[in-house]
Amino acid sequence: MATKSANLYARIEPDVKEQAESILAALGIPASNAINMFYKQIILQKGLPFAVKLPVTKPVAMGSLTKEELDAELEKGYADMLEGRTEPAKKVFDDIRRDYGL
After folding, report:
1. Is 70 exceeded by the pLDDT of residue 93?
2. Residue 35 and residue 8 in contact, taking contact as beta carbons nearer than 8 Å
3. Backbone angles phi, psi at 100, to 5 degrees
4. What is the domain partition of the chain in residue ranges?
5. Phi-psi region of 4 (alpha: psi -120 to 50; beta: other; left: phi over 0)
6. What is the pLDDT of residue 72?
7. Distance CA 77, CA 65 (A)
8. Whole-structure pTM over 0.85, yes or no?
């Protein structure tokens, strides 16, 4: 293994740093190791190891839909329900509370 002697200085938002380091600590990974892994993935992928793009779809603004568009969105939701592509509301709210520390 190569000797670690290079320093990296980066300015990031304190809240982002705190949240990320909390997750890394729970995983047992020091921040310096995570950054080293990230850099190694950049080298292996010859770029960022994830897609950097704007989302293709935007959330639906229900109040601005026509009756026909609203009906179509409701039909999509109903089809998702019939196909089992849904989550129980309790699980969704528990996930939100967990993710945001509520």
Report:
1. yes
2. yes
3. -105, 10
4. 14-45, 62-99
5. beta
6. 92
7. 15
8. no
